[in-house]
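Consider a protein example.
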Amino acid sequence: MVIHGGLYIITGEEFSRGRSYTEVIQACISGGATAVQLREKHWPASWLVEAGRKLRRITQEAGVLFIVNDRVDVAMAVEADGVHIGQQDIPLELVRKIVGPHMVVGVSAGTPEEARAAEKDGASYIGVGPVFPTQTKKDARSPRGLRLLEEIRRATSLPIYAIGGIQIHNVASVIQAGADGAAVISAVVGADDVTGAVRAFVTEIQRAKNQQPQEE
């Protein structure tokens, strides 16, 4: 599946204000989200599989990329488009052996060296962050700012999603720094109007891309 960038939604039950994950994700897709990641760290495997099957159906009907965080087994069981792994998860080269050459595999990278290694070992895209301070991920590294994005953009030709503290007022800056898209949780999942929040992000991302100088 081709990765186009845009707005990448990560689920977060604790931010959903009592709304079901299916309701939230359907609203995100209606607003123009291009990718969805199932990320519920404390759910047992049976819950993840149940949720994954529902989200697989919703995203497949809409033509939206569907990724499972960390759990290669769950991603394969629900026939997701891909899996996203961090530096402390199963090594990418082993993930590739398990899932084969066609499944999307995203990799979190916090340095240009990690990004280069991920591209060499077969990653499909890179997640970079946290760019800005965030309360969403308790074990996140210290915010690295836009300079890291610029450095990683120079280090890899893979699509890049920026993550961490991204809000409507700063999303354009991550695109201008080299990201192809932005990954968000609370700024959308916790919004009063989820669909409206997504539309606003999509508009800002596209505006920032349109303002970038064209390569010669």
